[in-house]
Automatic annotation (TrEMBL):
Segments traversing the membrane: 14-38, 50-72, 78-96, 117-139, 145-167, 179-199
GO cellular component, one term: plasma membrane
GO molecular function (one): manganese ion transmembrane transporter activity
Protein name: Putative manganese efflux pump MntP
Matches recorded under PANTHER family: MANGANESE EFFLUX PUMP MNTP-RELATED (PTHR35529:SF1)
Pfam families: Mntp
Cell compartments where the protein resides: Cell membrane
Keyword field contains Protein biosynthesis: no
Length: 200
């Protein structure tokens, strides 16, 4: 538990907050798209029913970066000289993957029941794989983890609730377009990290 106290002692600058917030926004688009699908497929969904779904999506989106961070921190000393390139590569590949998914012509949504535990757990894990990769890049760069995961979780929860709220009104293709925007944000963050380490 010592690392928790060390994390809490570290102060977060305004620039770091904005960076973590933008990463959270970028990662949340997967969950937003899923939540829109929930609203589209279950128009009778109510606020109390939406909360467990949003909590599950937010929890895994916040938990997976911790796993990646722990792995990245362990490997950091071995790859110190190229860590910024690895972080850039991971974020860029994740962003490109999201953009490709968003650009696919398939605008139809598969029918599923988000009220089933196995379904929502599967969706939560599937939409959090990208967050695992982002956490890995945090570990490589030895960035604090508690602040970003708290921000990522909060942003994802809000995005999920909004997605279900507007799901019955937002066309499926808009949720696909949100993946493209999320991918662009992650690539931009990767470029920022690379520039900071090479030229600052």
């Amino acid at each position: 538990m010592n690392w928790v106290f060390l994390q809490l002692k570290q102060k977060m600058s305004f620039i770091q907050f904005i960076t973590f917030f933008l990463i959270g926004v970028g990662l949340s688009f997967d969950s937003f798209a899923v939540s829109v699908s929930c609203g589209l497929m279950r128009q009778e969904i109510r606020f109390k029913q939406a909360i467990p779904i949003a909590v599950s999506l937010a929890f895994f989106q916040a938990f997976f970066p911790v796993i990646g961070w722990l792995a990245g921190t362990t490997l950091h000393k071995l790859i110190y000289s190229v860590d910024h390139w690895i972080a850039f590569g991971l974020l860029a590949l994740t962003g490109i993957k999201m953009m490709v998914e968003g650009a696919k012509p398939d605008g139809t949504l598969q029918s599923f029941d988000p009220f089933k535990v196995r379904i929502i757990l599967g969706l939560s894990i599937a939409t959090s794989i990208d967050a695992l990769v982002v956490g890995l890049s945090f570990g490589f760069l030895e960035l604090p983890i508690l602040f970003p995961v708290a921000i990522i979780g909060a942003v994802t929860f809000l995005a999920s609730m909004l997605g279900m709220l507007f799901g019955k009104y937002i066309p499926a293709k808009c949720s696909k377009q949100s993946l493209i925007l999320g991918g662009i944000i992650l690539i931009a963050i990767g470029i920022k990290i690379l520039v900071e380490h090479l030229f600052v």
